[in-house]
Amino acid sequence: MINNFAKRFAATASVVTAGLGLTASAVTAESLDEVMTRRGLSQQDLLAAAKTYTPSGGRDEFIVFSSGGQSGQVIVYGVPSMRILKYVSAFTPEPWQGFGFDEESKRILEEGKIDGREIHWGDTHHPAITETDGNLDGEWLFINDKSAPRVAVISLHDFETQQIVVNPILQSEHGGTFVTPNSEYVIEAAQYPGVLGRGFAPLSEFNEKFRGAVTYWKFDREAGRIDADRSFSIELPPYSQDLSDAGKLVSDGWSFTNSFCAERYVGGIESGRPPFEAGCSQGDTDFMHVINWRKAEEVYLSGAVTMINDHPVITMETAVANDLVFLIAEPKSPHGVDVSPDGKFIVVGGKLDTQASVYSFEKIMAAVDAKNFSGVDPYGIPIIAMEDALHTQVPLGLGPLHNQYDSKPCVVYTSLYVDSQIVKWDYCEGKVLDKISIHYNVGHLVAMEGEGVNPAGKYLISLNKLAIDRFNPVGPLHPQNHQLIDISGDTMELLYDMPIPLGEPHYAVAIAAEKLQPLVRYRYGTDSRTGGKHPGAVRPGQERIERDGTHVKVYMTAIRSHFTPEIVEVNEGDTVEFIITNSERAEDETHGFSVSTFDVNLSLEPGKTATAKIVADKPGVFSFYCTEFCSALHLEMTGYLVVKPEGYVEEASEIVEGTSYTEADFDRQMQTNVETQAVIDSVVGYITSHNYKDFPEVVSLVEDAVDQLNFATEARTKAEELAAAGDWQNATLWAGQWWQYQVKAADIGLRAKTFLDEHGALKAE
User: Fold this and answer.
1) Spatial distance between the Cα atoms of 748 and 761, rounded to a whole number of angstroms
2) Which end of the chain is less crowded, N or C, counting CB atoms within 10 A of the terminal residue's CB?
3) Each residue of 439-452: pLDDT tens digit?
C-alpha cells in the first residue's frame, strides 16, 4: 500500500515538474447570452459584475475595516470584491483565533473590566487607522465600545488586539475613535452625560452635577500602545456629545465634536413625562464644540487640571479661561461632523433637518481672534453665531447623517437616512450633483481613504441599517446591507449588495491594500499580544515538562503533524499550563490546540507561542488535538492528557503496539523513502533552476522544506541506528516518520513550484 501511494505520488509530481504548460481552452456549454437569458440578467448587471469580479488568486485594491456592532469585533473585507476576509475580535472572546481562550489574550480582556466587572460583549462603532501627515498609514487600528467607555488598539501587522483602555471618567461614549493627523491622540467623546468618574447624583441635579467630556488618549506609536499616563480630558456641558473629527493642514491642532439634546432634557415616561425623544428634539439647533486640543495639551502639561479617578481633567472654567472651547449652533440632532481634506471646511448634517451646513474654519478663527461671540451658554462657554461661521447651507433631502470626501476637489457624499439615498454635492459652490437610491435607510458611508488629506475616490460603500427584501430570508433578524457604489464617473452606479451577518455595523474605514504590510509569520517564539519574545518559547529538542508542587508546565512544540510531547501525565487537582510554540515557517501553516471537555482553544500561527491553562479537576484520560486542518495527517496530530486519580499508584507496564513490524517491513519502508527522495530531488532541481530567490513567498517555502528535510535526516538516523540493533519495530516506525517529513517537504516543494509557474518565474541562465 505504501509503495502504491509512493508511485502515485511520484507520478503526479513528475507530471507537475514537467511543467504542465497546458491551459484550459474548453468553452463552457452555455454562451454568455444564454446565461443572461436563463438568469434574467441585463447588460448593466454584467457590467456591474465585471467591475467587482476578482479572479481566483486575485487581490483587492482596498481593504475595509468595519465595526461589528454588538459582536464586539471588526469586520475586514476587500473592495471591489466585497469578500469578507476576517473578523478581528476586540472586546469579546472568539474561539477560532483563540481570543479570550489563551492566557495571553485573556490578559487583554482583563484590561477591559469596568469597575471590576467583566464585560462579555462590546458595541463597536467607529474604527480609525493611524495617520502620518493626515494620510492613513496602515499601521494600527483603533475601535471604540459604546456599551462601555473603552478603546481597543489593534495591530495591523497581525490583525490582533493588543490593548484595551477603559475611560476612567465616562459612563458611556459614542464618539470614538478619531485620530489627529499624526496619531498624536485618539479622540473619544462622551455620549450620555453622567457624573464624571461614574459617581452618583440625583437626576434632579442633572444641570449641576452631570457632565460630558472629550478624552484625548496619547498614542505611543513606537510602543504601539495608548499611554493612559499621558492622556487627559476636557470637561464639557451635559449635552450629549456625539462624533468628532480632527482638523488637518490649516486646521491642524483643533478638533470638532457635535452634540444632540442641548436642551439637557431628562425624560420619565413612566411618570407621565414626555420621553427623551420629545424633549431632546424640541430646540431648533444643537451645538458643535470647537476645541483647541494643541493648546489644551499645553494646559494639561502645565498641571492646571483636576484629578478624577487618577485621570487629569481640564475643567470648563479652566477651558474657558484659556480659550480652549467654543460652541457654534448646528442643525438639530446632527450626527456626522467631517473636516474637508484641505482642513478648510467642516460639514455637518442634522437628522431632523433637510440641509447640510458647511462651516468655514477661516471664519471660525476670525470670530475667535476678534472675540466676536453672540453670548455664552449656561456654563460660560463662548458661542459663535452660526451666520458668522457658515460658508454655505445646501438642501440635500430628508435625514442627512454622515459625510465622506472624494478625490475630486470640493466633492462630498452625504447619507440621507429618511430618503434612503446617497447625495453627491459640491461643498465649495453649494450645489447638488447627483443622487442614488440605496436599500435601505443608510447610516454611515465610507469612501476609499475618505477621511485623509488625499482621498482615493473610486468607490463608496453605503452602510445600510435595513435589508428587508434584498436577501434570502433567514428569520426575523435580517442581515445588514453594505452596498458598493462606483463613484469614478459623474454619476454614481450601484454595483453590489453584500449581506453583513454579524452585529449591527456602524462606521467603516478603507485603506489602499498596498499600504498594509501584514506579517507572513511571527519571529520564532513571539507573544502576539505584546509583539515580544514569549518567555516560554522552545525550539524542537527543547520540549519538556516541569513540575513545581501542583503546578505543571508543559513546554511544547507543534509542527505537521504532531505535538511534542504527546503524552502528558499529571495528578488530579494539578494546574496545567500548555505553553505551545508553532515551529512551522511556511505561510498559513496554523495549528490549533484543544483538550477534550476543557474550555480552551489556541490559534497558533507560524512562529507564535501561546498558553492554555487548565485545572485538572477530574481524573481521566483526555485527548488533545490540533483544531486547524493543517496537513494530510491532521487527524493524527493528537495526544493524551492523563489525569491520575488522587492516591493512584501506577504499576510498571509497557505500551504494547497494535501491529508488529519485521525486517521486511523496514526494507519496504526504506525503499519507499528512496523513491520519494528522488521525487524531492527533481522538485528541488526545478526550483533551483529558476529565479526562485526573486519571490519571497517561495524563499519562505524553501526554508520550510529545508526544515522538514532536517527533521527527516534526524528520523532517518534513528531508524538506521535501531535497525543496526535489530529493533525492527521502532526502526520501521522511525523510517515511517522519516517518510512523513519527506512527504511534507515534497508537498511544500510542489506548492513552491506551482507558485513559480503561476507567477512567470524564469529559468536561470
Assistant:
1) 17
2) C
3) 999 999 999 999 99
